[in-house]
Amino acid sequence: MVQERTLPVFTPPDVTITREEGLILYEDMTLGRLFEDKCAEMYYRGKMFGFVHLYNGQEAVSTGVIKAMRSDDYVCSTYRDHVHALSAGVPARQVMAELFGKETGCSKGRGGSMHLFSSEHNLLGGFAFVAEGIPVATGAAFQSKYRREMMGDDSADQVTACFFGDGASNNGQFFECLNMAALWKLPIIYVVENNKWAIGMAHDRATSQPEIYKKASAFNMAGVEVDGMDVLAVRAVAQEAVARARAGEGPTLIEALTYRFRGHSLADPDELRDKAEKDAWFSRDPIKRLASYMEKHELASADELKAIEKRIQETVTEAVEFAQNSPEPKPEDLYRYVFAEDE
């Protein structure tokens, strides 16, 4: 019987942040949470269609990793991609419009919830199939290294962050790509968002090695486990991984132990997970933990944080209005964006 991990075993010591850094992290996580709450409302009101997978509870992973990177670095996501897009800088109105299938969406209304993409923000896409984004992200990291080392482009020092779930770590793409990335010392961070459940299958029942970060040792790659409900811990290990990748020292496998607060998708009644398990993880809400930290260290007051939440709620409300008032894609443009177009 596999011993279940209920609590992470590693948190970087002596993590400190400035007020400005804390506010950036808090705003980003709050935007992700309120945006997803609004998505649930719109879905149940019949304004949003298809499969919609929300990120509630996992915000510390997206914020901690992406905010440790530069704006010209690359981000590759999964079908749970809304918050990754927001953290990468895609405007909330463009993400919401995409979920409404509108022409003003970041994927021109052609992608929907699971296929967000933005070349402007180096968002490589959301991918519906499990582990589908891993080869794409590995290729992006390869082109950065090739341009820098073979073509002499000193500006090509971008790092790629590749997000995927615990279920993807059992797929062939995972092993093949990590092997190549280690051999070629690619500038990439593989981020496993281990939320303990692959749809309705408990992670510990689906793999012979439930401690995913240990799989890095098979490739002689750096591997680390981190508390995915602690944005400061995630940010600290991400900063180390980014620095290692940018210095040409190769990839890192980060396993962030986290938890989704909702079902697998909005069509999932979420009846498989034990209530006691959910309550235990709810008590570790990453946004509340950061708020408590900031108040304790006098980086922000409760009133300031409430004001931020109010402002972001207005941003999300405006995003819905923008999406509702945006035009639908034109029928005559059905075959556009299938192939590359001339500028």
Descriptive overview:
This protein is α/β, with parallel strands linked by helices and 343 residues long. It has a single domain (26-327), classed as Rossmann fold (3-Layer(aba) Sandwich). The protein is built from ten helices and seven strands. A five-stranded parallel beta sheet has the order 1-2-3-7-6, sandwiched between helices. A two-stranded antiparallel sheet has the order 4-5. Helix 6 (172-184) links the parallel strand 2 (160-165) and strand 3. The longest helix is centred in the first third of the chain and has 26 residues, at 19-44. It is globular. The termini are far apart.
The CATH class designation is: Alpha Beta
Radius of gyration in whole Å, from Cα?
19 Å
* Approximate helicity band: 25-40%
- Bin the strand percentage: 5-15%
Order of secondary-structure elements: HHEHHHEHEEEEHEHHH
Q: Please, what is the average pLDDT? A: 94
What global shape is seen? globular
Quickly count the helices: 10
Biggest sheet strand line-up:
1-2-3-7-6
- How many domains comprise the coordinates? 1
What class would the helix/strand composition place it in?
alpha/beta
Provide the CATH architecture: 3-Layer(aba) Sandwich
Oligomer: single chain
CATH homologous superfamily name? Thiamin diphosphate (ThDP)-binding fold, Pyr/PP domains
Largest sheet: 5 strands, parallel
What is the CATH topology assignment?
Rossmann fold
Give the number of DSSP strands: 7
The stretches of 5 or more residues where confidence is low (pLDDT under 50) are none
Amino- and carboxy-terminal Cα gap: 58 Å
